[in-house]
Amino acid sequence: MTAATAGIMNVTVGALYLPSMPEELVRRPLQPGQVSAVVYIENIGPLWSVMFIITGVVLIMAAMRRRGFIPAHLGAVFVWAFYGAAILFSAFLTQPPVPVVAGAIASFTALVHLAVARGCAERGMR
């Protein structure tokens, strides 16, 4: 159930980052001249949507098939750690500084996925 729930969460975050969704759902408007690594990465293409949706689907598939938990959670570790780092990096560059709570939550979500993957490995789940 953890993998399925996390998968639904990832798909939801990815859907919120789709270009067709209002920007206000994922961020407050930046002040003129402010830089955001999250937005910079998003301007390359719908990378956040792709990464979150793919890892979400892989987590849901692992839950349905009852195997593949470790690689699915490790994929989620990468996405959440990358996302958290982008948020925290941007927060420290922004003037005035912006809250870092979203970056902290994303970073700890990555650690939770890492802990779950390790727990799966210790129980012999693959």
Contiguous helical run count: 5
**What general outline do the C-alpha atoms trace?**
elongated
Largest sheet: none
Number-wise, the strands total 0
The whole-number mean of residue pLDDT values reads 90
Structure class: mainly alpha
Overall helicity: over 70%
H and E order: HHHHH
Termini gap: 15 Å
Overall radius of gyration: 15 Å
Taken as a percent bin, the fraction of beta residues is under 5%
- The poorly predicted ranges are none
How would you describe the overall organization of this protein?
This protein has 126 residues and is mainly alpha-helical. Helix content is 71%, strand content 0%. It has 5 helices and no strands. It has helices at residues 2-16, 37-44, 47-65, 69-93, 101-122. Helix 1 runs antiparallel to helix 3 (47-65) and helix 4 (69-93) packs antiparallel against helix 5. The longest helix has 25 residues, at 69-93. The radius of gyration is 15 Å and the shape is elongated. The relative contact order is 0.16. The mean pLDDT is 90.
Task: Spell out the key features of this protein.
single chain, 126 residues, mainly alpha, 71% helix, elongated
How is this structure best summarized?
The chain has helices at 2-16, 37-44, 47-65, 69-93, 101-122.
Question: What secondary-structure arrangement, pairings included, does this model have?
Answer:
Blueprint: H1 2-16, H2 37-44, H3 47-65, H4 69-93, H5 101-122
